[in-house]
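Protein modeling request. Please complete all fields; requests missing the sequence field cannot be processed.
Requester role: graduate student
Desired output: 3D structure, token encoding
Chains: 1
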Amino acid sequence: MKSEDRLSFGVREAKAQFSQLLQEVRQGREVLITDRGRPIGKLVPIQPGDLTLQDRLAGLVARGVLEAPDARPRRPLPPPVAGVGEAAQRILQEDRNS
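Delivered output (98 residues):
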């Protein structure tokens, strides 16, 4: 990771600017947290493989890539029309024979 992609904050400063730190992480930067100049923790972006399938799907819905399924119950499909299957089979067989 490039040094400009990594930020360093002391505990007090990190506490006071936590929302800003999260925004930096959302943009792909790592944030190092220090206590009296010694590193004690790090905030890093979540990698796609770190999320569950449900979390990844929710992220795609939030970005507008997918639409959430409709919560209403779906109607069952109507029964097949009688005789259509036989006609389709006959037409297919005639096509194969010609």
